[in-house]
Amino acid sequence: MDFRSSDTITGPRSEDVLPTTATAAVKVVIVGGFGVGKTTMVGSVSEIRPLTTEETMTQAGVGVDDNAGVETKTATTVAMDFGRISLSEELVLYLFGTPGQERFWFLWNGLFEGALGAVVLIDTRRLEVSFDVIGRLEERGVPFVVAVNTFPNAPHHPVEALRRALDLPDEVPMIDCDARLRTSSRDVLMTLMRYLHSLAVPLA
Q1: Over the stretch 6-31, which tens digit does the pLDDT of each residue have?
Q2: How far is the CA of 55 from the CAs of 45, 80, 99, in angstroms?
Q3: Residue 65 within any structural domain of the chain
Q4: C-alpha distances in Å from residue 179, one per residue of 18, 114, 123, 141
Q5: What is the value of pTM for the model shown?
């Protein structure tokens, strides 16, 4: 290839470069049913421009994907979302958002490889889409926290009622969030980190 003096070779944007102070990196997976806000959370909290694999929904998904309750959704993640956030000068989280439709769940195997923990996003209007997701995490032995995403007109249920509906153990943290807000999404990730730390540190 003939590179002329006018050709420019560019690298990553300055804001995308990993901080030199970073000494530890953790892989976290954002999971949930179709349309619960996974792409939104990764995009709102990521300090770099997130990588998304959203594609326009077509007739091919009719009768295959369950879009009850999110009929106005026009795009969907078909592989993964990726972002990064520094929780401190030393600790960096790499965020991987999973596709929600069951026909893409075969991709979870690769996305979960090396993951330290997960965030399960739920929509109280459609709790049933979270049952299989939580079951898969429990089968894999992946520690997780549950984040109740805020949607307009979504019913509010007491925490204990949600725990019973999702069959969650008392020790699994549950937190309200608004996936559109960076501070709220960051609080969810901090909750996950504290939970993972509690599991790693033996009780005195």
Answers
A1: 455 455 565 666 667 776 889 999 99
A2: 21, 11, 11
A3: no
A4: 24, 24, 11, 25
A5: 0.76
